[in-house]
Design a protein that fits this description.
The complex is a heterotrimer of chains A (306), B (306) and C (323). Chain A has 306 residues and is mostly helical. Helices cover 68% and strands 0% of the residues of chain A. In chain A, helix 3 packs parallel to helix 6, helix 8 runs antiparallel to helix 10 and helix 9 runs antiparallel to helix 10. The radius of gyration of chain A is 25 Å and the shape is elongated. Chain B is of the alpha/beta class. Chain B has twelve helices and ten strands. In chain B, the strands form two sheets. Chain B has an eight-stranded mixed sheet, sandwiched between helices. In chain B, 46% of the residues are buried. The chains are: A mainly alpha (306), B alpha/beta (306), C alpha/beta (323).
Chain lengths: 306, 306, 323
């Protein structure tokens, strides 16, 4: 492509101006974000760990070194050996295999909660911020009520009442506490975006309300939404681990890092690996998601200098 | 870039956005933000080279020998400090006046810039001032140390036209009464015609024309200056002709066109213009232009059809 | 023949909520004028005079607090919902800020095509053809139909905004400061474009701006606003040669002319004081606090009506023409 800034006719101006603006290759907003993300080492490390985790979770669906439920593979409480790199737990189960299974639980709960709570939060936030009035009053009331109640209480109530310990139920329960942050965020974004001139312009060309929300407001709030959702994942994983530690999480023998840590608490003195390994896995996972989230937030922030 | 500001004169630096006029002014005060820097050359103030000043010398020089006022006075004035205090601070910081003397000078300064009820106004905060008054307060601050030169970067662009007229009148009177030289940076040619005795026209980081205001406006020699003058609608015009436009866009300075930087948009270009960049040469008494063709030659032929 | 008739339009904004009722910003406080078919009516005034608000009320982007806006024979103020939406096909707006008025996440093609989509006009190939055509007419290269706004310059973005306003073939366009945010050399391009479009498509413009030089150049008639009211309306030539209202005269004298010899001789009429707050406008004639020829008690007690002082020339002043 030529780099001269214009095609030009000397003499009287043509009715059709012939500006051609050469800017080089097209750089979409997403490409730009990726470029900036790439420069953040910590975020890249975080992403790498997340990818490894996801792969582990997928692989564990059809293969683990030993079955996660098989007991007495060797002496109980045995430390790391060649055959069992992470050792055996108090029932003689292979910790590595259980760790992989637990990864699956964590990922499913994390991503599932992030998805469900985001959907709830986005819809309510958009409606509250756009229509204001009584819609906003109701949603804000809901948010404030839920905010005042302790998350653990809500989740325990749901789990106890429904008597279900499946992953789906746990995702639902945690989502019902996690939607608040997203709703607040999206409501704030919507409130400010609806005053922007391009929204006014959309209205002036006859765009209906729902399309304004879908085409104009939502896409422009996507940056902060993605960051928020990314931070919900580690929060949900931790929550689930906590539940499992207390004994309210997924039903055994499905492995969960929290439950594994709980099993190992009693034997902390003489077989610390049983609690330390799942705890370490949890820590690394949480850090990875947080670094990734931080990196995404910085990369998506339009105000930061390149 | 080379140019001269004479004692007590009013110089206008004119150009559009991106032409480098603000950067030029900022370099006089060595206020260029990172990562920009002065690569070579000198800035002579009286007999000393500002480009070689130590931080201590710079501190003494800024606000004292040379002052600057900016386009948006809201960002140059501290919103949590009273206006009178800020003006006093400007004086005390340079240790030319002690606290008591500085205090006594504040109200007369405000009076000089024609702020009504100066004693009361000195106790106000910036948000209590209107746009025009804030700009006057800035001028008062700038002149409080009796500098030899006041640089005004687009001081009236954000102001209404009646307020603009007042500020221009003020600058004119201050220049006459105090003998302070004024460098006015603007994109508004009409304002320059009103205030300045000499003009420098900039395009793409270069001076393309300079000279006494009357000469530049009555017989501009550079096609850019000429086209610019033709493209501004005048309130007193009697015919309604189509405005002459400059088609195309300013050049991308990271990938400039060969030869004269203006040639792709120039009506009067010849072959040489795309090969060699013309030097800034004298074309009349005290008038210089950077052009191979020059308007006097271009117009000697027929006037190009509008 | 009036295409748009504005009658006694009022727009107040409540600010704060006190126990005894909050205060109100009287942005537009009783404005009456008409825009004739095929003309360009320029609306000028300084900041705070209410011209942008008036533009938005006329374009029905803000609801009027009172008054009527007649488009052909329909009072737009009475329209709601779908009926109002349908009206928008005939009346469009060009916005001031070329950076803020385009959705940064939509391609140029989608931005210009959105109006077509909203009213179910043209699909597929036909839609693309219309978008291409209107882009060409506005001086944009149709090859860039899939680019995003941030890849264009300010002047080109403004062209995109104009293309968007044009694609529905409206009859009336409200242009709210369409060139203020642009560089000087680009302003002339857009001014010429607007003129050409008007000739070609027989458009009627309400051109709102603070730059009287540009307004005069583009407009057939000019209306001057001060603090929520119209103070003078006349032909653009007449308003320069024979301004009757003292504010208009002061405004004209303040506008610098790019001619150093002329400027050396001119003396701007400097108005004393500041523009009063629209929350509490002065009594009687709103301009009396700053007017060089105000006479008391008449000017501070009686509000002068906007009426004919000469054929086709209206002014709101008790002593019109005496400055």
């Amino acid at each position: 492509m030529a780099t001269a800034p214009s095609t030009f006719e000397p003499g009287p101006d043509q009715f059709v101006a012939t500006d051609t603006y050469e800017v080089g290759e097209q750089v979409s907003a997403w490409q730009d974000t990726w470029r900036r993300l790439r420069r953040n080492r910590l975020a890249l490390v975080g992403m790498a760990i997340v990818i490894i985790l996801a792969l582990t979770a997928i692989v564990s669906t059809f293969w683990t070194p030993y079955e996660v439920w098989r007991q007495s593979l060797g002496p109980t409480y045995q430390g790391p050996t060649g055959k069992h790199p992470f050792g055996l737990d108090d029932s003689g189960r292979d910790i590595l295999s259980r760790l992989m299974g637990g990864a699956q639980v964590s990922m499913v709960v994390g991503v599932g909660t992030a998805t469900l709570s985001s959907i709830i939060g986005i819809v309510l936030g958009l409606l509250a911020g756009f229509y204001r009035g009584w819609v906003d009053a109701v949603v804000s009331l809901l948010i404030n009520v839920f905010y005042g109640l302790p998350d653990l209480l809500i989740v325990l109530l749901i789990v106890a009442v429904t008597q279900q310990r499946g992953l789906g139920n746990i995702i639902l329960a945690i989502s019902l506490t996690a939607w608040l942050g997203m709703a607040r965020l999206v409501r704030g974004q919507t409130l400010s975006l609806r005053e922007r001139e391009f929204v006014e312009a959309a209205r002036s060309v006859g765009t209906r309300d729902q399309w304004i929300l879908i085409r104009h407001i939502f896409p422009n709030a996507l940056g902060p939404i993605i960051v928020q959702a990314t931070f919900v994942i580690p929060a949900a994983i931790l929550f689930e681990a906590f539940l499992s530690y207390l004994g309210f999480g997924v039903k055994p023998p499905t492995p969960s890092w929290g439950a594994m840590a709980s099993d190992g608490f009693r034997s902390l003195q003489y077989a610390p690996h049983i609690i330390l390994i799942p705890a370490a896995a949890l820590c690394i996972t949480l850090m990875a998601f947080n670094f990734m989230g931080d990196g995404l937030r910085d990369a998506l922030d339009p105000r930061m200098r390149r | 870039m080379s140019f001269v500001v004479n004692k007590g004169e009013t110089l206008g630096i004119v150009g559009e956005s991106g032409c480098g006029k603000s950067v030029t002014a900022l370099s006089i005060l060595r206020l260029i933000p990172e990562p920009g820097k002065i690569v070579s050359g000198h800035i002579w103030f009286k007999d000393r080279d500002v480009a070689r000043f130590s931080p201590e010398e710079l501190r003494e020089y800024r606000g004292n020998d040379v002052s600057m006022i900016f386009q948006d006075p809201m960002t140059s004035l501290n919103p949590v400090l009273r206006v009178g205090f800020q003006i006093k601070e400007a004086m005390v910081a340079h240790e030319r006046f002690d606290n008591k003397t500085a205090d006594a000078r504040v109200v007369p300064m405000l009076q000089k810039v024609r702020i009504p009820a100066p004693k009361e106004r000195a106790k106000n905060y910036p948000h209590q001032f209107s746009g025009g008054m804030r700009q006057r307060a800035m001028i008062a601050m700038g002149l409080s140390n009796e500098p030899d030169l006041l640089i005004a970067d687009e001081p009236t662009t954000a102001l209404d036209v009646t307020v603009q007229a007042q500020i221009i009148e003020l600058l004119r009177d201050l220049n006459r009464d105090l003998g302070t030289a004024v460098v006015l940076i603007t994109h508004n040619l009409a304002v320059v015609a009103s205030l300045c005795t000499r003009v420098i026209v900039m395009y793409a980081g270069r001076i393309v024309e300079s000279g006494p205001t009357r000469q530049i406006f009555n017989s501009p020699q550079h096609p850019y200056t000429w086209s610019l003058l033709q493209s501004i609608p005048r309130i007193d015009s009697t015919q309604h002709d189509k405005l002459l436009t400059i088609s195309g866009l300013p050049p991308d300075l990271s990938n400039p066109p060969p030869g004269c930087l203006f040639h792709p948009r120039c009506r009067f270009r010849v072959d040489r213009c795309s090969k060699e960049e013309p030097p800034l040469e004298e074309v009349g008494p005290a008038q210089a232009a950077r052009c191979w063709v020059l308007m006097k030659n271009a117009l000697a032929g027929a006037e190009p059809a509008r | 023949m009036a295409l748009v008739r504005v009658e006694d339009v009022v727009k107040h904004f409540p600010i704060g909520t006190g126990i005894f009722g909050g205060q109100v910003v009287r942005a537009v406080d009783g404005v009456t004028f008409e825009v004739r078919t095929g003309e360009t009516l320029g609306l000028v005034g300084e900041s705070g005079c209410g011209k942008s608000t008036l533009g938005r009320v006329i374009a029905q982007l803000q609801p009027a607090t009172g008054g009527h806006v007649f488009f052909k024979d329909t009072d737009l103020v009475t329209l709601r919902g779908e009926k109002l939406r349908r009206m928008r096909q005939q009346m469009q707006m060009i916005f001031q800020d070329p950076y803020a008025s385009l959705n940064p996440r939509m391609t140029v093609g989608d931005i210009i095509g959105e109006p077509l989509q909203n009213f179910g006009i043209a699909r597929g190939k036909e839609r693309e053809r219309r978008i291409n055509e209107v882009m060409r007419i506005c001086g944009l290269n149709p090859n860039f139909i899939r680019r995003y706004p941030h890849e264009f310059s300010g002047g080109q973005r403004q062209r995109i905004g104009i293309a968007r306003a044009l694609v529905l073939n409206p009859t009336f366009i409200v242009a709210d400061e369409p060139i203020s945010a642009l560089d000087v050399s680009i302003q002339a391009q857009i001014v010429n474009l607007l003129e050409d479009l008007q000739d070609r498509f027989k458009l009627t413009y309400l051109f709102i701006a603070h730059d009287l030089s540009v307004v005069r150049h583009l407009s057939d008639r000019v209306a001057v606003m001060y603090l929520g009211k119209i103070v003078e309306v006349a032909d653009s030539k007449e308003i320069y040669l024979n301004p009757l209202h003292p504010y208009t005269k002061a405004l004209l004298s303040s506008i610098p002319i790019p001619d150093p010899d002329l400027e050396a001789q001119r003396e701007p009429i400097l108005l004393k004081g500041e523009i009063p707050s629209p929350v509490n406008p002065p009594s009687g004639c709103r301009f009396h606090t700053r007017c060089p020829i105000a006479q008391f008690p008449k000017c501070s007690e009686e509000e002068p009506p906007l009426e004919d002082k000469a054929p086709g020339h209206r002014a709101a002043c008790h002593f019109a023409g005496q400055l």
